[in-house]
Design brief:
With 270 residues, the chain is of the alpha/beta class. It folds into three domains: 45 residues, Orthogonal Bundle (434 Repressor (Amino-terminal Domain)), CATH 1.10.260.40; 100 residues, Response regulator (Rossmann fold), CATH 3.40.50.2300; 96 residues, Response regulator (Rossmann fold). It is 49% helix and 14% strand. It has a five-stranded parallel sheet with strand order 2-1-3-4-5, with helices on both faces. Helix 3 packs across helix 4, helix 7 runs parallel beside helix 8 and helix 11 crosses helix 12. The longest helix has 16 residues.
């Protein structure tokens, strides 16, 4: 009997009995309802934590359509690797959601052409209350669908509609400029840029910024190699790049590409 009691799920009723308020007050307090006094909310939350209370998300979803879950869509090739920036984004998002008694759900697309269907499933099957997407394109089909559906989302990257939805982004154009400025200190005879495939907004900005800086500084017009941002892609491209000798400077949009170059250089004894 003691073991059964130990694993009994704590509900709103048990918290209400412990605190000495009614169940509706507990429910409101756990939702931070402003109708509940701050002191009462604090007492309820503290007692809920002590008792190990966990909200019944399934019941809430069935009752009010809320899942207390945010979905993140991993675009290919992120199902095989994830950049340090994106890993930090996931870790921070998970921490913030857990502080609000919410959870993070990760959905992985193995092909670009299946991403819109995954997003549609998240929306129509009520798998989450909001979604985070990355690797945005200028006219992004996922963003267009989410805007038409009126579903909450944030894009990690800009689209053609930056005034119609929330987004966060890195200034990749500036990053491209800074990369060329740094490389020019070595007075290279040739410059190559390794960036993600065409159509990805952040990569297009990086290449444009790099080429603008090269033009302003009187540098050779850089070659742009639009490849996936993986170590394998960098390593595969390396032999051709190395043939031009030490005065060939290379700017990589992401560390993983540079790691691939380093691995190839070590193998060739460079």
């Amino acid at each position: 009997m003691a073991k059964e009691a130990m694993y009994k799920r704590v509900g709103l009723k048990e918290i209400a009995q412990e605190v000495g308020v009614d169940v509706s007050t507990v429910s409101r307090a756990l939702r931070d309802d402003p109708r509940v006094k701050t002191e009462t909310t604090q007492v309820v939350r503290r007692k809920a934590h002590e008792l190990g209370y966990r909200p019944n998300r399934l019941a809430r979803a069935l009752r009010g359509g809320k899942t207390d879950r945010v979905a993140v869509l991993l675009s290919p090739p992120q199902v095989r690797f994830a950049s340090p920036i994106f890993l930090e984004l996931l870790a921070t998002l998970d921490q913030l959601l857990r502080a609000r008694s919410m959870t993070l759900a990760v959905f992985a697309a193995h092909r670009r052409d299946e991403e819109r269907d995954i997003v549609r499933s998240i929306v129509e099957d009520r798998l989450a209350d909001a979604v985070v997407i990355g690797r945005t394109q200028e006219s992004d089909a996922r963003v267009r669908y989410l805007l038409e559906a009126g579903f909450p989302f944030v894009a990690f990257g800009r689209t053609d509609w930056p005034d119609r939805h929330p987004w966060v982004d890195i200034d990749y154009a500036k990053a491209g400029r800074l990369a060329i400025e740094a490389l020019m200190q070595g007075k290279p005879a040739r410059i190559s840029i390794l960036a993600a495939p065409r159509g990805l907004r952040f990569a297009d900005g990086y290449v444009a910024g790099a080429r603008a800086a090269a033009s302003e500084l009187g540098a050779p017009d850089p070659d742009a190699w639009r490849i996936e941002m993986t170590e394998a892609a960098g390593e595969e491209l390396a032999p051709g790049l190395f043939r031009d000798g030490p005065r060939h400077a290379i700017a990589c949009i992401q560390d993983s590409l540079a790691f691939g170059l380093y691995r190839a250089a070590a193998r060739e004894g460079r």
